[in-house]
């Protein structure tokens, strides 16, 4: 791959992948799997607010995009384990950076939200 200082343009393909990686559950699933491989019900316990249907759909998207591997163990009964893939592991630093950025900027964001909400209430009252 040739290095360039040029910033890539946001295409439909980029948007689709980012939408799937930054959806409601994917970051939480990736964060949980970065620590250790987990079975489905262990993931449900790690993210208690996710429904079975939503977790299944998110895991399938992550597996399709190569971020998560689904491993079937040859035990009795057969068990399925999910683990972060090599590609998925490359996101760990980015996930950590996003969490750190969110933690650092959340107070400012909350202040901006409060100012915006106050202005909206004032506009509604003045009508």
Automatic annotation (TrEMBL):
InterPro entries documented for this protein: HTH_ArsR_DNA-bd_dom, HTH_HxlR, WH-like_DNA-bd_sf, WH_DNA-bd_sf
- Key words, A-Z: DNA-binding, Transcription, Transcription regulation
The protein's organism comes out as: Nocardia rhizosphaerihabitans
Looking at the record, the residues that make up the HTH hxlR-type domain are: 7-110
Mind telling me what this protein is named? Transcriptional regulator
Record SMART domains: HTH_ARSR
Give the Gene3D superfamilies listed for this entry: Winged helix-like DNA-binding domain superfamily/Winged helix DNA-binding domain
Question: Which PANTHER family would you find in this protein's record?
Answer: TRANSCRIPTIONAL REGULATOR, MARR FAMILY, TRANSCRIPTIONAL REGULATORY PROTEIN
Q: Which domain of life is it from?
A: Bacteria
Reply yes or no: does the keyword NADP apply. Answer: no
